[in-house]
Amino acid sequence: QVQLVESGGGLVQPGGSLTLSCAASGFTFSTYAMNWYRQAPGKERELVATIFTVAATYYADSVKGRFTISRNNAANTVYLQMNSLKPDDTAVYYCRVPVLNIWGQGTQVTVSS
Fold first, then answer.
1. pLDDT tens for residues 19-48?
2. DSSP states of 29-50
């Protein structure tokens, strides 16, 4: 059974950092690109970052230079390192396997003083 489990969310002050993790199981993780999405209250879900099997990456303009996506194929885990967080980054963050269209349950990130 394909499963994605996110963790690492929480409350952080503006300018702070968080690292999200997404543990994958049930498929050959190393052969699939992975996404991080987010959905803020009242807004559509948006693509934040993608990491491909050869470790090439893509970032939304809103997070470029602040967020870093990475993967550990031995641990079947994809990460999202988030620095210089802003209140606008407040959202539920989801990981996704785009080819399989499988989503995790999400983890809440709140940026507030």
1. 999 999 999 999 999 999 999 999 999 999
2. GGGS-EEEEEE-TTS--EEEEE
Q: Max alpha carbon distance in the chain (Å)?
A: 41
Helix residue ranges per DSSP H, 29-112: none
Q: Please state, in angstroms and rounded to a whole number, the distance separating the CA atoms of residues 59 and 53.
A: 15
Residue with token string 């785009």: 98
Looking at every residue in the chain, the average pLDDT score rounds to: 97
Q: In 3D, which of 22, 38, 45, 28 has the Cα closest to residue 100?
A: 28
